[in-house]
From TrEMBL:
<feature type="domain" description="2,4-diaminopentanoate dehydrogenase C-terminal">
    <location>
        <begin position="145"/>
        <end position="347"/>
    </location>
</feature>
<dbReference type="InterPro" id="IPR045760">
    <property type="entry name" value="DAP_DH_C"/>
</dbReference>
<dbReference type="GO" id="GO:0016301">
    <property type="term" value="F:kinase activity"/>
</dbReference>
<dbReference type="InterPro" id="IPR036291">
    <property type="entry name" value="NAD(P)-bd_dom_sf"/>
</dbReference>
<dbReference type="GO" id="GO:0008839">
    <property type="term" value="F:4-hydroxy-tetrahydrodipicolinate reductase"/>
</dbReference>
<dbReference type="Pfam" id="PF19328">
    <property type="entry name" value="DAP_DH_C"/>
</dbReference>
<keyword id="KW-0560">Oxidoreductase</keyword>
<protein>
    <submittedName>
        <fullName>4-hydroxy-tetrahydrodipicolinate reductase</fullName>
        <ecNumber>1.17.1.8</ecNumber>
    </submittedName>
</protein>
<keyword id="KW-0418">Kinase</keyword>
<keyword id="KW-0808">Transferase</keyword>
Length: 354
């Protein structure tokens, strides 16, 4: 069976999703939506950097794309700074009877106990009204801290703690809005960026600890946050701009699922803009990695190393997010209507890619 797919946005993740849709023999690219008028009329292959045309031109006409009655939309528009608009987008698509795989808003990965019902209920109601399904995922939040850690716990005799870590250098991540405005890199350590405002880490990654706990049948007492930052020793440049001496250049945070006063499920990020910063913080395997540690009997450590064919680990991370969504399309289309989580879906392999 062939599934007709519309790609919604062609940014850092979206262009890799187009390549992924083209790579799968059971998917057909039916349309591409873009927000930038300069991209309207351009071929999807060009926008994805494939070096060849795919015969599908981009449009900014949402109605026209939904009128195509695609089986699924791959939604990769940024939601971090346009949350209400993103929710409206998803509800509109779902009410039209079109399934969705989406990289955002990330709290929809597993919203129960993470956000108030009024933030997720409109999406559930739209899915029910349209008889469609939605799956929000990626690499993180996503595969690296849902399917991967839960699979590792399946070979445990006793579990004391599950820790999921991202250990990456973001220097080549060319997304200034995320790096500077949201994460606070290049900003004063005396100021609190959006990401570190109380409750924001939990909104973004609380779904991770809640879903792992649910998968293990554990009820958490609370979810707590912790973070620390380090300054740049001198001024230096990254892909997205300049980091001035004394401004934030390294960030480490944890979202901790607590039970009985102990952190039993932990999401940790260790983010540097130079490899030599914070040498006493956890170090990655290879150029960058996602790490799962299951402490108990026995102890397990699994490192998922990332590296694109261009030599950049951040390219691999973007592709992983895109392909987690693209490869999930058949399973999501065939699933019952509703808001799906990784606990609801079967194993999602890269069928047809070998």
């Amino acid at each position: 069976m062939t599934y007709r797919v519309v790609q919604w946005s062609t940014g850092n993740v979206g262009r890799h999703a187009i390549a992924g849709i083209d790579a799968r023999p059971d998917l057909e690219l039916a349309g591409v939506w873009v927000s930038n008028p300069a991209k309207v009329g351009r071929d999807a292959g060009e926008l994805a950097g494939l070096g060849r045309d795919l015969g599908v031109t981009a449009t900014g006409d949402e109605d026209a794309l939904l009128a195509l009655r695609p089986d699924c939309v791959v939604y990769t528009s940024m939601a971090d700074v346009r949350l209400a608009e993103a929710i409206d987008d998803l509800c509109r698509i779902l009410r039209a009877g079109v399934n969705v795989v989406s990289s955002s808003p990330v709290f929809l990965q597993f919203p129960d106990g993470v956000v108030p019902p009024e933030m997720s209920d409109p999406v559930r109601e739209a899915a029910a009204a349209g008889g469609a399904s939605i799956f929000v995922n990626g690499i993180d939040p996503g595969f690296a801290n849902d399917v991967l850690p839960l699979a590792v716990t399946g070979i445990s005799e006793r579990i004391d703690q599950v820790r999921c870590m991202e250990i990456l250098n973001y220097a080549t991540y060319d997304q200034g809005t995320v790096l500077f405005d949201i994460m606070g890199f290049g900003g004063s350590l005396d100021e609190t960026p959006m990401l570190l405002q109380p409750g924001v880490l939990t909104m973004a990654w609380g779904s991770v600890v809640r879903q792992i706990a649910a998968g293990l049948g554990v009820e958490l007492d609370e979810v707590a946050e912790w973070h620390t930052r380090l300054p740049a020793p001198e001024t230096f440049a990254v892909a997205a701009g300049t980091i001035a001496k004394g401004t934030t250049a390294a960030l480490r945070f944890e979202v901790r699922g607590m039970r009985g006063g102990e952190a039993v499920v932990v999401l940790e990020h260790v983010t540097r803009l130079r490899d030599d910063l914070a040498p006493d913080w956890p170090q990655p395997a290879g150029a960058g990695c996602y790490r799962v540690e299951v402490r108990g009997e026995p102890n397990y450590t699994v490192d998922l190393r990332l590296l694109g064919t261009d030599g950049d680990h951040n390219t691999a991370g973007l592709k992983a997010t895109a392909m987690r969504l693209v490869n999930a399309v058949p399973a999501v289309v065939e699933a019952p209507p509703g808001l799906l989580t990784a606990l609801d879906l079967p194993l999602i392999p890269g069928r047809g890619l070998l």
